[in-house]
Design goal:
This protein is an alpha/beta fold and 232 residues long. The chain has helices at residues 3-31, 49-58, 95-111, 125-134, 148-152, 178-192; strands spanning 45-46, 67-69, 75-77, 85-90, 116-121, 140-143, 161-165, 168-173, 209-210. The chain folds into two domains: 1-30; 45-210, 3-Layer(aba) Sandwich (Glutaredoxin), CATH 3.40.30.10. The protein is built from six helices and nine strands; from the N terminus they run H-E-H-E-E-E-H-E-H-E-H-E-E-H-E. The strands form three sheets. The protein has a five-stranded mixed beta sheet. Strands 1-9 form a two-stranded antiparallel sheet. Strands 2-3 form a two-stranded antiparallel sheet. Strand 4, helix 3 (95-111) and strand 5 form a beta-alpha-beta unit.
Length: 232
Amino acid sequence: MKPTRRLFILAAAAFLTPIVIGWIALAYLIANREKPVRWELPSRHPVGPQERNLAKRLEAKPAPDFSLQGTDGRTHTLRSLKQPVLLYFINKDCPCSIEAEPMFGRIDLAYRGKASVVGVLHGTLQDAKDWANANDTEHLILADPSGETVRAYGVPRSVYTAVLMDGKILKMYPGYSGDMLLEVTRLLAELAKTPWKRVDPDYAPKRMTSGCEFDFAPAKGEDKAPKRPSAQ
């Protein structure tokens, strides 16, 4: 083989190889674009029988009322919210709360005007506003600086979720999962007497999972933080 021809082949190979590899990579990405990635967060806590029993015992009981400031600049009580209410609890430092936030946002968009989707964040009003801005949250977030409302609902970890109607806890979930999020939308549609709208639970864990434990600071005049809710 002549040197000129050999150099031409080598130059062509050097030019075409990255292009071929690029097309192969693009074809792979296109083939897998509909497959959501499921991140395994270290802060996830699989829900066990103890947590399920605790949540079950809370159902059909009166829903504790509250008076909390919201990210909309108003003070809200349970009675002031449009029924039914999907109330979920946020630990601002928990990756699971961040992961689940877009899913609650989708539920809000699907049932806006028919039901209330409301987050209760253990922190100041500024914390709640910062959280909403950082996560592009359009629905209402209530600030619970003392953790009184979190404790009143018996919630030990973030992403616990309650469905409320007429002052009662109809359903309490000790965490979240793909199946749970679909069940929640069906329940909201039934209670609101509106057609069911499916919300795609992208990135939700398959198994019921809760987030980080709430860490309550001592209240004024107390020597230590109050005990967290227990399933005992």
